[in-house]
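Annual report, structural modelling task.

Input specification for the zinc ion complex:
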Amino acid sequence: MKLPGEVRRYCKFCKEHTLQKVVQVKGGHRGVLTAGSRRKLYNIEHGYGSTPYPMFEHAKRMGVKQTKRYDIRYKCTKCGKMTTQRRGKRAKKLEIK
Ligand SMILES: [Zn+2]
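The model returned the following structure:
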């Protein structure tokens, strides 16, 4: 999937249409985790029990989930604020020009 590098869209902070940069956000803030959620994250990344491969890899082998959800956000060039993501975009591969 190819996305343009810049889009003119509504900025809720400026309350008008402005030129906004398309940004792909990678990773995220995990913060302080409990032992249970650390174990869950480990299992998602490494696989465990009935899912011996990492989650995405496992889904690929089982023939489901051919695409990933990418975190796409828009950064306003006027006020510098970024939009929050709602659901992201599903795509096999993402390219931002
Ligand atoms: Zn703005």
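The chain has a mean pLDDT of 83.
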